[in-house]
Amino acid sequence: MRRLPEQAFDPITSGRAQRAFEIRREPETLRDRQGRHPLGQNLRPARRLIEAGVRMVCVNAWLGYPPGDRFVFTQGWDMRGTVNQGSIFGRDQYGLRFALPRFDQAVSALLENLDQRGLLETTPAVVVGEFGRTPKIVHNPFRGRDHWPSCYTALLAGGGIRGGYVHGSSDAVGTYPAGSPVTPEDFGATLFHALGVPIETRFGVDGFIGPVSTGRPVLELFR
Length: 223
Description:
By secondary structure, the chain is α+β, with helices and mostly antiparallel strands. It has helices at 3-13, 16-20, 28-34, 38-51, 96-116, 184-194, and strands spanning 125-128, 132-133, 138-139, 143-144, 147-148, 154-157, 169-170, 177-179.
């Protein structure tokens, strides 16, 4: 019990994690490569935290908003296509033509940088949300697309993940999985596998607390 809190506090009290947020130490060329927007700039201290010994880092995938667009809130990827948001494929803060190029720039730069520093093989990188969008237009309360947990995707890289591999598929309109579906339990088990944690590991040592996952890791993802 004493060792684990000490291990958690060590990166903070030693100053290593604090230095990770000194982003001015990063070359300007790298800052440009990552993207001068919130996601690009937040992924840089995320990588530096990993280098400092932090075991897990979570980054909000907010991309900011286009010049001249009115600031609303820091919510990303809420593309519904409702009357107050405009087209899902538009160039405003709720449009994929605005979001996708910035996402591609930031995430590809992170993976490239991790690889150059020899960290990609030991650092699983995961991009995932908690649901997709309804395959058909609904009215709730505005005409557009709503939450849809029955079918959505995730991006994984590093940590022994096979590059360029696509697992599973949806039906023609993205309503339900059509092949090799992955449940949330399986997804969690896959992440534990990538981290080197056996899924039968117990949260506690009393023999009564459940395992870390009841799913099955998707081993096809790994080399």
